[in-house]
Amino acid sequence: MTTQPLVLPPQATQVGLAVDVVAFAMDAGKLQVLLVKRGELPHARVWAMPGGFVQPGEELHEAALRELRTETSVHLEPRHLEQFYTFGQVGRDPRGRIVSVAHLAVLPHGAARVVPGGHTLGAEWHSAHQPPPLAFDHQQILNRALGRLQVRLEYANLALEFLPDSFTLPELQVVYEAIQNRKLDKRNFRKRLLSQGVLTPCGERRIGVGRPAQLYRRAKNARVAAL
Amino acid sequence: MTTQPLVLPPQATQVGLAVDVVAFAMDAGKLQVLLVKRGELPHARVWAMPGGFVQPGEELHEAALRELRTETSVHLEPRHLEQFYTFGQVGRDPRGRIVSVAHLAVLPHGAARVVPGGHTLGAEWHSAHQPPPLAFDHQQILNRALGRLQVRLEYANLALEFLPDSFTLPELQVVYEAIQNRKLDKRNFRKRLLSQGVLTPCGERRIGVGRPAQLYRRAKNARVAAL
DNA sequence: TCAAAAGTGTTAGCATTACACCCATGC
DNA sequence: GCATGGGTGTAATGCTAACACTTTTGA
User: Fold this and answer.
1) Could you say which residues 80-109 of protein chain A have a Cβ atom less than 7 A away from any atom in strand C?
2) Distance (Å) from CA A177 to C1' C7?
3) Which of A56, A59, A148 has its CB closest to that of B89?
């Protein structure tokens, strides 16, 4: 398809098109969200999701990846990236009409080291359930991202994306518990997960005290999220 | 919040912001989608979802309602309207970078009479599962809308929105069957719906031949879709 | 031998599915 | 009385939730 010059009807509104990325990871058994401290007005020195304007010719998901990389120097690829809602309320940004396509990202374990980049003053992981005060409508964005993450957890096997290639069942259970924000029964959890047949055993892990744990990785027939 | 003049960073992309509306209704036991025949290039004389550009200062859902009204003269209020995905792929519209926030609407029974408006050559209901060829990426948009509708059906009681205030259980079952595109067992369906306790009996309907049917309406404690 | 973490089965309740006949009405 | 559409019950199965003790290791 050849792209012709932009000739829009007169009533077409010109808006700023942005993406924001709600990036989750697990650390110390807690669900964490990646925030940057803004270096510019508006909301300078306030925490916000990494995000920014889409560049000409850039796909939405590419823009999301770029913002994640340049604002936070997360060098690991997200294991999951999906658009989940578009925030376009008039007045959500004092600079004018800015519409933000919000994305949900899952980063694997080991992504916990991040450094700030771009115009930000810092990039840090924070508790996803009790974040600091957030700029713009980013608390709303976070809430909706959490809801979507919880749905995806049941629906696809999104929990696996938080962990390294091989992991133990107790580790996986911690991911479920952190996202659902409740305790699960160990026996029922194991039964359910193992009966799905998506986990293959692969050796043992013996670290620290206590009985060594069976290691698993995802089976070949890994099904990923639909919709 | 005071809105200042638009001062965007230089890298901000100016894009056309549009909404499209996938409006569903039931007719003759079939799930129908509302299409308009485009009167202008590109894709003149091709069927498409009603939609168009968002106006300055206009909220996204307001724009969706306006397009629905002006392009199709549907005067009934949609019973349900939600944003479900944003389509922004480069090249999806030959006129330039146009991002469309797609909305899902449910129109009640009786909305079947529509007349074209705006710049369109026609507005008609078509089979949602076998539509005619569609303009732009509108087949993709329709597919995703159908997926979302199916999820909402189980999740909320969205089926009620397709029907008039009072309805019979066989009528309700037809809605479920049309959306899920499969047959359901009458007895199991009744058991499930009635046990939810969201339906209140209200009189009988005696039309045509056959035994009169019990009429129901939604109970006071009507819960609506979340997320 | 103790602390720490991993692992293991059974039962009861509930929801889902499959399945076939009688009832009320208009013509 | 028959065609049309509305209404009803039960049994089997599978899933979910609740519940406590044993095993393996390092210190």
Assistant:
1) none
2) 19
3) A59
Query: With contact defined as beta carbons under 8 Å apart, do A218 and A198 qualify?
Result: yes
pTM for the predicted model, two decimal places: 0.91
The CATH architecture that domain A16-155 belongs to is: Alpha-Beta Complex (3.90)
Residue B208 CB closer than 7 angstroms to strand C? yes
Tens-digit pLDDT profile for residues A144-155? 999 999 999 987
Name the pairing type of β-strands B98-106 and B14-27: parallel
Please name the residue of chain A whose CA is at the shortest distance from the CA of residue B52. A12
Domain boundaries, chain B: 16-155, 158-218
| Preceding peptide of B10 cis, ω within 30° | no
Out of 3.30.70.20, 2.30.30.100, 1.10.10.10, 3.40.50.10400, the CATH code matching B158-218 is 1.10.10.10
Show the CA angle centred on residue A118, arms to residues A148 and A69, nearest 5°.
45
B24 within 8 A of B107, measured Cβ to Cβ: yes
Tokens 């809602």 -> residue: A85
